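Hello again, I could really use a second opinion on something today. I owe you a coffee for this, so here goes:
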Amino acid sequence: MAPERLLVIGGDAAGMSAAAQARRLRPDLRITVLEQGPDVSYSACGIPYWVGDLVSDRDRLIARTPAQFAAQDIDVRTGTRAEGIDLSAGTVHTSTGEVLGYDRLVVATGGRPTRPRIQGLDADGVHGVHRLADGSDIRAAIAAGAERAVVLGGGYIGLEMAEVLHARGLAVTVVLADPLPMAQLDPDMGERVCRAMGAMGIDVHPGEPVREIEADADGVVRAVRTDAAAYPADLVVLGLGMGPEVALAREAGLQLGSTGAIEVDRSQRSVSHPEVSAAGDCSQTFSRLTGQAMHIALGTHANKQGRVAGSVIGGRPARFAGVLGTALTKVGETEVGLTGLSSLAAERAGYDARDEIVEGTTRAGYYPGAEDITVKLISERGSGLLLGAQIVGGPGSGKRIDVFATAIWAGLTAEELAGSDLSYAPPFSPTYDPVLVAARVSSRIEQG
């Protein structure tokens, strides 16, 4: 009897996690992975830090190679694009002209960088930050003498690219349509990020949608134009976020959800075709707090979802538990963390929410290197249930968001978190850590 065939489309976080987990559980499976690019299992999140010379070379961003997967009897075919899925026949047509059959299929086509519909987007000198080749191109532009960079977008990638380009000595302008950088934050916290960027010497222009990328007669970028001004540029970096890459899935007839991503159940199986799994940035997920459908492009989720899909294919029951949207980034010395619902999102979800802001320091005030930290905590009025948290502060601030994420995941109230046993030593925190202070203030006001 022929071995069961698992075919995976997409060779990054979700796809390779699914393949590796299925192999651990099913040594008998015949596993083939199709990857349209030259690399698999690479860290797109690390590209800004390679551009900034904080990572010495591109290969350090590659977790595992096709040869390493081959040692696990996983056939990885790079440079091979899936061009069509025939769900009724159980086959996939590839760019090499092959027709590959499957018994189980994992769609892990990842995300698609958001591209505004503006003139000049294809000008020489305009780059995304999605694949390792993008990082190589940006590094080459810097080496060739680029002096003025315009970054479009103020999310994670936008902030990180602005930071590293500034550190490389370029004059950096950030242009964004949103009123403030980090639109996931509440405005009072986003303002702190904006001020920190300005203090670094980064020129920030919020509330200015891009109208055109201007190019010279040779097709080389020269400026980014908004309704307010034209900003000179030798280099333009697109950091406008990611949408789901679902063209292949849509054409095949897989059901898409309200977010535009592939709709899956808690086991990462397509709701319309259960023999097909989908994981990572191409799939829809849900909020652990509200149950509402969400699309969040983060490698943490992609790896977990891929593992769930691989477990189910391998015969072990598994369910994805949802997301809080926990994220962390930095720009210069300013760290930014968030988890759960913002004040506005909590209100829209129907919660009677309250929020409290506390200011503190990352270490005991008398200890050298103590940095300012601002914590915003969102909770439900009456019950005190924790709903969300945001942190903006100096070095040592950001990873505190994980305490809030854990508390929200566990369904704790502000009072319960305030009574929890967090560590203390002067080099790491004040006697009462800002996390506990925020929880205590929130619970005390609630009791009052």
